[in-house]
């Protein structure tokens, strides 16, 4: 995989995952969501997760530490998103808000920081090549 494609995939992931907070806030405000908690909790259902688990990433990249870290953080992010929506589904708005502002936000920020670091590392590799 060319590092440019990796950087593009990471940029797309940062944007898409940034939209989750708005999506969850909307679900809390409306009392429902267009996605189930179970589906939101799966880390292989979004476009980035499909790419992350798909076959287009070379084995050498998958064997690297950044890939493993991103995969773990991405799974934790989706687990938190699913938990927020589970509270929405059970009509426990205070718990949903608490989780959104706490664990979900922390995990989201951690994922974005790790994606940004991976992007810069991949960009540095492509500039050196």
List the topology elements.
Elements: H1 3-30, H2 37-40, H3 47-53, H4 59-62, H5 65-89, H6 93-128
Please characterize this protein's 3D structure.
- It is a single chain.
- This protein is an all-alpha fold.
- The chain has one domain (3-128): Four Helix Bundle (Hemerythrin (Met), subunit A), CATH 1.20.120.
- It is built from six helices and no strands.
- Helix 1 packs parallel to helix 5, helix 1 runs antiparallel to helix 6 and helix 5 (65-89) runs antiparallel to helix 6.
- The mean pLDDT is 90.
Q: What are the segments in which pLDDT stays under 50 over at least 5 consecutive residues?
A: none
Please compute the radius of gyration using only Cα atoms: 16 Å
Q: Label the CATH architecture.
A: Up-down Bundle
- The shape, in one word, is elongated
Mean pLDDT: 90
Distance, first to last CA: 13 Å
Protein name: Chemoreceptor zinc-binding domain-containing protein
Organism: Novosphingobium umbonatum
Domain Chemoreceptor zinc-binding: 17-84
Descriptors for this entry?
mainly alpha; Chemoreceptor_zinc-bind_dom; 6 helices; Four Helix Bundle (Hemerythrin (Met), subunit A); 129 residues; 0% strand; Chemoreceptor zinc-binding domain-containing protein
Could you write a compact summary of the structure shown?
This is Chemoreceptor zinc-binding domain-containing protein. The protein contains six helices and no strands.
């Amino acid at each position: 995989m060319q590092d440019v494609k990796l950087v593009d995939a990471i940029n797309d992931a940062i944007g898409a995952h940034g939209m989750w907070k708005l999506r969850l806030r909307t679900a809390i405000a409306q009392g429902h969501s267009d996605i189930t908690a179970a589906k939101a909790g799966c880390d292989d259902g979004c476009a980035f997760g499909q790419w992350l688990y798909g076959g287009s990433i070379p084995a050498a990249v998958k064997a690297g530490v950044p890939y493993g870290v991103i995969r773990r953080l991405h799974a934790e992010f989706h687990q938190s998103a699913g938990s927020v929506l589970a509270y929405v589904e059970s009509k426990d708005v205070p718990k949903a808000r608490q989780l959104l502002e706490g664990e979900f936000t922390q995990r989201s920020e951690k994922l974005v920081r790790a994606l940004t670091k991976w992007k810069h590392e991949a960009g540095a590799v492509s500039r050196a090549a």
